[in-house]
């Protein structure tokens, strides 16, 4: 095995890139769950966002429009989940699983004619002065804009939940929807907005895979990223800043196993490929999750 093939600076820089789609998807799901809704369809919304973003970017030549199209695609699919669970009061777990299957099938159908096509370039930002700092510059300040959008989104969500009145209402709905309704808050409206936000974020995470990380359309390219995002929300105890730790842990193990494969480590590739998922499971077993929102997964009946 050739250890010189592993560049520590490149490894850490790649970690931030690998964690970005997980950050985008999990921060959206965090808002959904803080509103008391359990949406297991993150994988389906991510893959739908991936194909929608790719189609828009290829046809317009603009990755930015591709990301916007991905957010809209993810939000539209989440609306289906919201309608079924909030208005027709279907089971949230079963509906989320069905949404994932639907998203995987829909994306495969939509992306049939786009296989093998390269996405338009989405250039990195070389932040002046900061990007030239030795070691830290290449690791932190020479990435594409979506890396920083993901980090900014985490900070905004943290501030929203902690300091804003709207965030307080969202948390109240998630903790006790009956009490929130008694105080005059529109529970279904709050939850629908949270569901749409979660869908848009999942779509952005999917588009990051198809427009930046690969960048091309491949059927099933999310490869379980949506399920990892769900697990990281639990690991983070529904706290935005702790969510970063989980995403970077998964991203770090993902990048490390790829580097170990390239360095010729004498371990079957299949074992290395499953190591990020095993690491996520191990962390969830070892770490004790905090208390979940009180109304998580419970349907709201306005007539009661």
Rg, rounded, reads: 19 Å
Query: What proportion strand?
Result: under 5%
How many domains, in number, for the residues?
1
Count all strands and give the number: 0
Principal-axes geometry comes out as: globular
* Average pLDDT over all residues: 89
Briefly note the structural class of the backbone. Answer: mainly alpha
Determine the N-to-C terminus distance.
66 Å
How many individual helices?
12
- The SSE string, one letter per element, is HHHHHHHHHHHH
As a percent range, the share of helical residues equals: 55-70%
Main sheet attributes: strand count, strand direction, barrel closure: none
Q: Report the CATH topology name.
A: ABC transporter involved in vitamin B12 uptake, BtuC
CATH architecture: Orthogonal Bundle
| Low-confidence residue ranges | none
CATH class: Mainly Alpha
Please give a structural write-up.
69% of the residues lie in helices and 0% in strands. It contains twelve helices and no strands. Helix 3 packs antiparallel against helix 4, helix 10 packs across helix 11 and helix 10 runs parallel beside helix 12. It is globular. The N and C termini lie far apart (66 Å).
Question: What is shown here, in short?
Answer:
InterPro entries: ABC_BtuC-like (IPR037294), ABC_transp_permease (IPR001851). Keywords: Cell membrane, Membrane, Transmembrane, Transmembrane helix. The protein has helices at about 10-35, 40-60, 65-85, 90-110, 135-140, 145-165, 165-175, 175-180, 185-215, 225-235, 240-260, 270-285.
């Amino acid at each position: 095995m050739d250890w010189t093939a592993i560049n520590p600076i490149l490894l850490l820089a790649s970690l931030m890139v690998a964690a970005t789609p997980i950050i985008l998807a999990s921060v959206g799901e965090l808002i959904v769950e803080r509103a008391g809704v359990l949406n297991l369809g993150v994988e389906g919304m991510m893959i739908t966002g991936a194909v929608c973003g790719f189609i828009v970017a290829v046809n317009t030549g603009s990755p930015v429009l591709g990301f916007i199209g991905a957010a809209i695609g993810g939000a539209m699919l989440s609306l289906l989940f919201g309608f079924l669970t909030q208005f027709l009061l279907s089971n949230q777990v079963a509906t989320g699983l069905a949404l994932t299957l639907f998203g995987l099938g829909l994306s495969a159908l939509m992306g049939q004619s786009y296989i093998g096509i390269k996405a338009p370039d989405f250039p990195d930002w070389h932040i002046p002065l900061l990007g030239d700092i030795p070691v830290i510059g290449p690791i932190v300040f020479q990435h594409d804009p979506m890396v920083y959008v993901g980090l900014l989104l985490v900070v905004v969500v943290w501030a929203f939940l902690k300091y804003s009145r709207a965030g307080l209402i969202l948390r109240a709905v998630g903790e006790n929807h009956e009490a929130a309704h008694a105080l005059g808050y529109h529970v279904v409206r709050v939850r629908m907005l949270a569901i749409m936000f979660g869908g848009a974020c999942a779509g952005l995470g999917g588009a990051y895979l198809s427009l930046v990380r690969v960048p091309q359309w491949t059927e099933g390219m999310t490869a379980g990223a949506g399920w990892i995002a769900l697990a990281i929300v639990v690991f983070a105890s529904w706290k935005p800043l702790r969510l970063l730790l989980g995403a970077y842990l998964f991203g770090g193990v993902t990048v490390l196993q790829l580097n170990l494969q390239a360095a010729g480590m004498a371990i079957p590739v299949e074992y290395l490929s499953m190591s990020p998922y095993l690491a996520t499971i191990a962390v969830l077993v070892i770490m004790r999750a905090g208390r979940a929102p009180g109304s998580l997964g419970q349907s709201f009946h306005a007539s009661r």
